[in-house]
Design brief:
With 349 residues, the protein is α+β, with helices and mostly antiparallel strands. The protein has two domains: 2-138 and 173-189, Hypothetical protein, domain 2 (Endonuclease III, domain 1, Orthogonal Bundle), CATH 1.10.340.30; 232-348, Nucleoside Triphosphate Pyrophosphohydrolase, CATH 3.90.79. The protein is built from 15 helices and seven strands. The protein has helices at residues 2-13, 23-27, 34-44, 49-62, 66-71, 74-81, 88-103, 112-116, 123-134, 143-152, 163-173, 179-192, 211-214, 311-321, 336-348, and strands at residues 232-242, 248-252, 263-264, 285-286, 291-294, 299-309, 324-326. The strands form two sheets. Strands 1, 4, 5 and 6 form a four-stranded mixed beta sheet that branches. It has a three-stranded antiparallel beta sheet with strand order 3-2-7, with helices on one face. β5 (291-294) and β6 (299-309) form a beta hairpin. α1 crosses α12 (179-192), α3 runs antiparallel to α9 (123-134) and α9 (123-134) packs across α12. The N and C termini lie far apart (65 Å). 35% of the residues are buried. Its cofactor is [4Fe-4S] cluster.
Length: 349
C-alpha cells in the first residue's frame, strides 16, 4: 500500500519544521494548533521554507493567537509582512483573523467547506488545514504533490492542464487513517526526494510503484507549457528628504492593487516608458542606476529621483502627496521593490 509505505518513511524522515507537530509528537497525543497551521500555509504560498522559518517565529512573537492578530492594526500586519511578497495575503490574513475571532469565537472551522467560507482561504489552504489540523481526509495539492503524482502515474499532459488528472490520482490515494501526516509526507517527499531536478529515486519509498521511474522518464515530469515572456513596465520613484531632520516622505499605497496598503516612496504609475512628472517642483537628481524588480506577471524598471527640500517645501509636499515623514524608512516595513529604491538612494548620496 502506498500510504503505508509513505507513512513509514515519514515516521523516520519527517522534516522538523517550527509549525509542524511531527509524527512522534502526534503519537504522544499532541495536536496541531489550527492557527499555526493556517499561518504557516499562508506564509509558504510562493515563498520558500528557508525564507518563512525566521519570519514565522517573529510573526508568532508579535501575534501569538488569532485574537491577537485580529486586534492588531492592519498596518502593523502589513509592515511585518514586508519582504514576503504577495501582500494581498497579509490583508486577507488579517481579515480572516477578524472573522475567526469575531464570528467563530477564535475557533477555526474543522471542515473544508467551513474553511473555504473564510476570507483569503482557497481550495489548497482549506484542504491543508482540514487535513493537517483536523485529520480530515482532504485532498491536498501543492507543487510538490503535483510533481509526485505526475511521476507516480507517468502523467505526460503538461501543467496546468494536468491539474484535474493529478488531483484525481491524489484523491484515489488519500487515506482515512492519518491523512494529515500523509499529506505532509507527500510534501516532504517532493521537497527532499522527488525533487524537480535529479530526483533521488534510489531513496524513494514509492519507487516500486512509480511508473515514471520504471520508464526512466521521471526527470522529464511533470511537463509544463512554455510560459509567455513577461512584459517590462517602467516608472519613477521619488525620494524626498526633509532638510531639517533628514526624515523621508512615504505614502500609503491604495488598498486595492499591487502592494495595496503598503508604505512606499511616491511613484508614478507603472506602464510604458514616459517622461516622469515630479510631484513637486525642486532641484531633483536622478540616480545613476534604475531599480529592477520582477513581479509574478511582469518585470519592473523604475528610475529613482532624489531631492532634499526645506521645511516649508516639505509641508507642501506632504500635503500634496498625503504622505507621512519617517526618520528611518528602513524600519517602515517597505516592500522589497521600495527597499531597493532605498538602497539606490543610499549608494548615490
Amino acid at each position: 500500500m502506498i500510504d503505508a509505505a509513505l507513512l513509514d518513511w515519514y515516521d523516520r524522515h519527517a522534516r522538523v519544521l517550527p509549525w509542524r507537530t511531527g509524527p512522534a509528537a502526534r503519537k504522544r497525543g499532541e495536536r496541531p494548533d489550527p492557527y499555526r497551521v493556517w499561518l504557516s500555509e499562508v506564509m509558504l504560498q510562493q515563498t520558500t521554507v528557508a525564507t518563512v522559518t525566521p519570519r514565522y517565529a517573529r510573526f508568532l512573537e508579535l501575534f501569538p493567537t488569532v485574537e491577537a492578530l485580529a486586534a492588531a492594526p492592519v498596518e502593523d500586519v502589513l509592515a511585518e509582512w514586508a519582504g514576503l511578497g504577495y501582500y494581498a495575503r497579509a490583508r486577507n490574513l488579517h481579515k480572516c483573523a477578524q472573522v475567526v475571532a469575531g464570528e467563530h469565537g477564535g475557533v477555526f472551522p474543522q471542515t473544508e467547506e467551513g474553511l473555504l467560507a473564510l476570507p483569503g482561504i482557497g481550495a489548497y489552504t482549506a484542504a491543508a488545514i482540514a487535513a493537517i489540523a483536523f485529520d480530515e481526509p482532504a485532498v491536498v495539492m501543492d507543487g510538490n504533490i503535483e510533481r509526485v503524482m505526475a511521476r507516480l502515474f507517468a502523467v505526460e499532459t503538461p501543467l496546468p492542464d494536468a491539474k484535474p488528472v493529478l488531483r484525481d490520482h491524489a484523491a484515489s490515494l488519500t487515506p482515512d487513517k492519518r491523512p494529515g501526516d500523509y499529506a505532509q509526507a507527500l510534501m516532504d517527499l517532493g521537497a527532499t526526494i522527488c525533487t524537480p531536478r535529479n530526483p533521488a529515486c534510489a531513496l524513494c519509498p514509492l519507487r516500486e510503484k512509480c511508473i515514471a521511474q520504471k520508464n526512466a522518464i521521471q526527470a522529464d515530469l511533470p511537463r509544463k507549457k512554455k510560459k509567455a515572456a513577461k512584459p517590462t513596465r517602467f516608472g519613477t520613484a521619488f525620494h524626498i528628504t526633509r532638510k531639517g531632520d533628514g526624515a523621508v516622505l512615504l505614502v500609503r499605497r491604495p488598498d486595492k492593487g499591487l502592494l495595496g496598503g503598503m508604505l512606499a516612496f511616491p511613484a508614478t504609475e507603472w506602464g510604458e516608458r514616459a517622461d516622469a512628472e515630479p510631484p513637486i517642483k525642486a532641484a531633483w537628481l536622478k540616480a545613476d542606476e534604475p531599480v529592477r524588480h520582477t513581479f509574478t506577471h511582469f518585470h519592473l524598471e523604475m528610475d529613482v529621483w532624489m531631492v532634499t527640500v526645506s521645511d516649508a517645501a516639505a509641508r507642501k509636499a506632504q500635503k500634496a502627496l498625503q504622505g507621512e515623514w519617517h526618520p528611518d524608512p528602513a524600519m517602515a516595513g517597505l516592500p522589497t521593490v521600495f527597499r531597493k529604491v532605498l538602497d539606490v538612494t543610499n549608494r548615490d548620496k
